[in-house]
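Task 17 of the worksheet. Students: predict the tertiary structure of the chain below and write it out as structure tokens. Keep your answer in the requested format; marks are given for formatting as well as content.
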Amino acid sequence: MKKVFRIILFIMALAIGGWLGTIFLAGFEPLKMLAFFAVCGVLGVVFHQIDKRITKDK
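Model answer:
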């Protein structure tokens, strides 16, 4: 079951990253690019914490 949750998490991360990319990277604007990198960094930490909870051995 852990594998299924990890695959769902991966698909969610790709979908959210793609959606954010369409919003922030539509044109070449440095501030939007910095915001995209910042949001991706924060979401990377969030997804990593979720992944750690999924794979945690009980």
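Marker's comment: Helices lie at 2-24, 30-55. The chain has a mean pLDDT of 93.
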